[in-house]
Specification:
This protein is mainly α. The chain is built from six helices and five strands, in the order αβααββββααα. The chain is globular, with a radius of gyration of 16 Å. It starts with a helix and ends with a helix. Bound molecules: adenosine-5'-diphosphate and magnesium ion. The site of adenosine-5'-diphosphate has 8 residues, from loops.
């Protein structure tokens, strides 16, 4: 069993939800990569703030995404985005029972979700640090 499957089973057991289920939502939008490739207008930078707030909490919450990139961020709706959502949890995982702080820190460093978020923004011409500048 791979690490992601094992992690998922732990998460289901901890959640108490039976049978195990994954909740999904269809988001009507465009990936950030496609949005910028098409040079579409009307992309307010502030819509990324909640996404980065969430990503910055992943480590403390015991989860990682593992594949943060502009191809895995949807902006919605396409015509005039008001929301940015992280998708594609195929490489995601959760902290396993008994995992040491050191091991967990190493895993988070390896997957580097925050770096992925920052690079996805910069690669698409979004000023950094939007996260900090939007905080006030
Ligand atoms: N929740 C969603 N809502 C709407 N479209 C989605 C959603 N998740 C994925 N997609 C669409 O499917 C494409 C591929 O999804 P993704 O999960 O990133 O798969 P892959 O593993 O091939 O990268 C996305 O670029 C997007 O167009
Ligand atoms: Mg993807």
């Amino acid at each position: 069993m791979d690490r992601a499957t094992s992690s998922l089973q732990h998460a289901h057991a901890a959640s108490g939800i039976q049978p195990p289920a994954v909740l999904i939502e269809y988001i009507c939008g465009t990936t950030l990569a496609d949005y910028n490739a098409a040079k579409l207008p009307n992309l307010p930078f502030t819509i990324f703030r909640p996404l980065f707030d969430a990503v910055s909490k992943f480590k403390d919450l015991g989860v990682y995404h593992g594949d943060v990139s502009s191809s895995n961020i949807l902006v919605s709706p396409s015509e005039a985005p008001v929301r940015a959502a992280l998708i594609d949890f195929g490489r995601a995982g959760v902290r396993e029972d008994g995992e040491s702080e050191e091991d967990w820190a190493g895993i988070c460093d390896f997957y580097s979700d925050e770096d992925g978020s920052r690079l996805a923004l910069k690669a698409n011409g979004i000023p950094w640090p939007v996260h900090k500048s939007c905080a006030e």
